[in-house]
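Re-run with default settings, no changes from the original entry. Doing this only to confirm the output is reproducible before filing.
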Amino acid sequence: MQNLYWLNQIQSSDRDTVGDKAFYLSDLMQRGYPVAMGFVVTPQTFWDFLSEIEWLEPLFADLPNSSLYFNADNPQQLQAIAQRIRHQIISAKLPEALASTLESAVQQLDAKALIFRPSLTNTSIKTSGLLESQVVWTDAEAIASGIKGAWAELFRAKSLFYWQRCGQSLHKLAPVILVQPLRNAIASGSIAADGGAVWEIQASWGLGMSLIWGEAIPDCYQVQPETRNIQSQQLGHKNIAYNLAHDRGEGGTQQNSHFILRRDREASATGASFVISGAASPLQARALSEVEQNQYALDQPYLQGLMDMAEKVKADLGCSLVMEWTLCQLASNSEPQLYVTQVSLLNGQHRKGDREDEKLSLSSPICFRGLPAAAGTAIATAQVITNPNSRLSNFLAGGILVASEISPEWLPWLKLAAGVISERGGMTGHGAILARELGIPAVVGVADATHAIKTGDSLLIDGNKGEVYLMSETNINNSTSGKAYIAEEKYAQLSNATAQSLSIDGITDFSSTLNYPLPIATKLYVNVSQIGSIARIKNLPVDGIGLLRSELMALEALDYQHPRLWLHSDRQAEFVERMADQLALFAAALAPRPVFYRSLDLRESGVEGSFSYVLDPELFDLELTVIERVYQLGYSNVNLILPFVRSVEDFSFCRNRLETLWGRLHPDFQLWIMAEVPSVLFLLPDYVKAGVQGIAIGTNDLTQLLLGIDRDSEQMASVFNSRHPAAIRAIQQLIEMANTAGIPCSICGDAPALYPEMIDSLVRWGITSISVNVEAVERTGIAIARAEQRLILQAARQRLR
């Protein structure tokens, strides 16, 4: 059988052999589009290679012809199996004939660096973010390393876990490797050309790694395909660019203030799509200058050229698509040219002229759109809740919960859900907050969802894009009731037990994988409310819990009964015991790091926050007793944040209540307020005089009150958010006022995680700490480190002038 298929020679009959990724690129190349030459290594080559390995363990001896049995819920066993298989693949010698064939083919590419891009020919199995590409030099040793590394991707622990959960037998996998030259790029990005009135273009400097790895937020353009007019454009957050090293001595080994070198993604939890192979990588990262950061990556002529190309490709293929591109200047005396690097058909569509028997039954998917409230993707059965009182008790584990709105009291069922869809609600609503903490995808603001979706419908929910697709049963491989097949970056969360204890290559719980460029001075806190989150956070390199949401914590502690039901004299002691036990678990897990407990804000009858304590202090008194009990248990790292403080009088009442009940304040104890009512902008000096020891900026409510919006309104939330100039200036003013007053200032709303481009400004203004949800800890820590490095570099440059 033929080992290699060249892109310029692939025929329609080869599609099942080479897979769609190579097939579509080949199609475009043969139509005259600019596509880099390359070749495909077939699945049979992979299995022939495996059959020649002298396996050290009998378990793997017949691997090419048999199934591999393992317990996917046993992370130690899974990790051990993955490591042994991968080690033997990577250390095995390529057959001489294959090595010679590859080296000869690479010579024809006339390149100094290569990218090996693995994929499967079976398009029904999603592998986006699962199989990592390999970037290598072009010498014989590097070529062998690249092909073996790409093949070994199938046997990472996360991949084995995913294959089993998808019901996919290993011996039935058909992996193909697309090999292409990798060349320097001026800019890279994508264009989504669908059937709508607006297309979206994304662009960033250099090769696409900064986007794939989440190290840059691209420039975004909303364009009208018919008129070519730019409807809107937003500058991204671009501070790093990747390109090729000038020679082998520079890539992967140099480390100075001008070049930031990418660590091996082997130990990353972010699901990257590239691995830099070898000690000396071809890739080199460059910190962008301030001018480059504030400049759009694509000039107008290239924007127009990209739109022209996308329109032609869409017409030729006859369907909506996402086209990835790169802008390269191959010679100093030539004009830069746009190249197509990948084409993906949108949502199960098929190419014009495809055979009917090749079409998926999802050829005309029904799509619902909303706000992407919690990241991740899942495929599961819909369970529509129109009457919570009668239907929630029947909710089946593993289903996608569809409702008009999500109430915090639904927490027991949210813990069982594979995903959440709601008609109402915004990015900062309680449903979205809980979904992010629980690690399940959520899309909110989906109009008419409870009527358009029926219980029993098969859905694909994409919390990254805010999209929901109604699928036919044939699109769900080996569907099993009560289980969701989580695709892409959420595959590791299928089993709660596994997800909490995973210590597997590429899908750990972050505890041993975070690696910031430098130690950070800005404190990094985490927002939590659920005991189940402790396993994920106790070993995180965070400085403590910046926001412990008591309302959500109390749900579990009080058996989902309203806190006021515990005010009867015979239940108050049990209330204190239950809440103290729960709070002590967080304090013990983080000790000696601080835990900032925000007292209950039940928001009853329009009375929010600390003023409700003034009207009726009984419940607040019990909370103060809870904190005192935790101190008596030996945990002096718990502090109190008062919510929704409107006036100095409200604060003084609470402080006096505390001193009265406790007799004296514990020396380690700190009393803060949430800075979320706009009056704090004018009263902060008075608060400090009254005894406020710190502020936590609640961007969710602060933005809502500044702009007069309902944060649970999807229409308002999509337009008015914490990036509004008024909100930004208010945040800056609070930070600077806190610095002047000599008190710490934290920010614990969702803004830094939702809009990470804000972090540079927060650090520059002097924020003391940033508190984010668990899934945002790594990227926030890296963003803080880079922001601090830039300040240091700027200060150094000024001294040199």
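Residues 252-279, 355-364, 473-517 have pLDDT under 50 and may be disordered. The chain has four domains: 4-181, 187-242+282-356, 378-492, 518-800.
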